[in-house]
Design a protein that fits this description.
Length: 365
């Protein structure tokens, strides 16, 4: 995370009446820090984009949510000044859109789509950001014994959960043959990636939203915001608290829209949930959903939901998908072996399991 310049910090402290110069300094800072321009219309940020929430102390909570990356992006933060708050939120939204343009498999011109089209024929230059995220994905593949594997998409691309479509036996068999993170050939110096065979496809759906959340939080922190939440579907990260109170995050009951299986008071943390209820269809009593076991190319079915708590959202995102594939026993063993992480799982029978340190915490209460 970048450090805030002392000068800028001083500017932000000038509240609540912030001068036009300070506001424009803030806009410039957003642009310098993020490379993004913040939407402006004649000096006001439109209220439909940025909502004023509850008053707390000498400031307010501000929020916006937008549909980006095929999910609901939410940004909520506390600040004394509307203009500054709304500029910061707009900068996060712009960053989400930028990441989507690079990494979406649904946007033909994205770097990821180009890699998928050409990677079997020649090395494709992907740039520093995508290269690093794919490298990080491969680290998760290694540390999870292959449960996390972005080449899952070799099979995953043959499913449409919205249209209720799945591959036939032959298509699936050929696709499973292409799933293996070892099929990715990385050239660090050239920042290119190639596929070792035809039929390989990659998708960053298991880590990309978490990465985007981390980037969003990084932007807010670099702008001096100390109390905020950025969420992208099932992946959220919180900095600070809610003015003296913890954030309260509910973990959904995977088989009920209204109920929670747990409610967690949280601060300064990332939380990611992977569930079999987000995108799925049922055929002959079998649920086909978007988390794929790389061994079979079919949905992983031993658990219904996995929530991971940890410092960074890219990590909790990748681990929630990984633990979903690994199941209760191996998944909990993995999380218990890692410092600074916790897990809450709901298995196929609806029974809840938690990691050792959460168990100790709840026993101590
Ligand atoms: P979401 O927030 O989209 O529900 P999850 O964290 O639950 O995301 O991850 C599911 C997504 O991860 C899928 O939509 C897919 O893009 C990707 N994915 C599915 N199976 C795997 C796997 N075994 N390894 C890595 N990524 C996967
Ligand atoms: Mg995940």
């Amino acid at each position: 995370m970048q450090n805030l310049s002392p000068v800028f910090f001083a500017l932000l402290m000038l509240a609540p009446a912030v001068s036009a110069e300070v506001q424009s300094a803030f806009q410039q800072k957003v642009m310098q820090k993020t490379g993004l321009s913040v939407k402006q219309d004649a000096g006001t940020v439109s209220s439909s984009d940025c909502q004023q929430g509850a008053q707390a102390d000498e400031g307010y909570w501000w929020s916006d949510h937008q549909a980006i990356m095929g999910t609901d992006i939410t940004v909520e933060l506390w600040h004394q000044d509307k203009r500054l708050a709304c500029s910061a939120i707009a900068a996060v939204m712009a960053e989400m859109k930028r990441i989507d343009r690079v990494m979406s498999p649904y946007i033909e011109t994205s770097v990821l789509s180009q890699l998928n089209r050409k990677g079997a024929y020649r090395p494709v230059f992907v740039g520093r950001e995508l290269f690093a995220l794919i490298e990080q994905s491969l680290e998760f593949s290694r540390s999870t014994g292959g449960a996390f594997d972005i080449t899952y998409a070799s099979a995953g691309r043959h499913y449409s959960y919205r249209d209720g479509l799945k591959p036939d036996g032959d298509t699936l068999a050929a696709a499973v043959d292409a799933i293996d993170y070892h099929n990715l050939i990385l050239d660090v110096k050239a920042q290119t990636i190639a596929f070792s065979k035809a039929g390989v496809s990659v998708d960053l759906g298991g880590i990309g939203k978490g990465y985007a959340v981390d980037r969003g939080i990084g932007i807010l922190a670099s702008l001096g915001i100390t109390q905020a939440m950025v969420g992208a579907g099932g992946d959220s990260r919180i900095i600070g608290d809610r003015r003296g109170q913890p954030w309260v995050v509910g973990i959904k009951n995977p088989r009920s829209k209204q109920d929670n299986v747990a409610v967690l008071p949280l601060m300064d943390i990332s939380v990611s949930t992977s569930g079999d209820y987000e995108r799925f269809f049922e055929e002959k009593g079998v649920r086909y959903h978007h988390i794929i076991d790389p061994q079979t190319g079919d949905s992983a079915r031993s658990v219904r939901s996995v929530t991971i708590l940890g410092a960074h959202a890219a990590t909790t995102d990748a681990l929630s998908t990984s633990v979903f594939v690994l199941g209760v026993k191996k998944g909990l063993a993995l999380i218990n072996s890692m410092e600074g992480f916790d897990a809450i799982l709901v298995d196929g029978e609806g029974q809840m399991f938690v990691s050792d340190s959460l168990l100790q915490m709840s026993a101590a209460r």
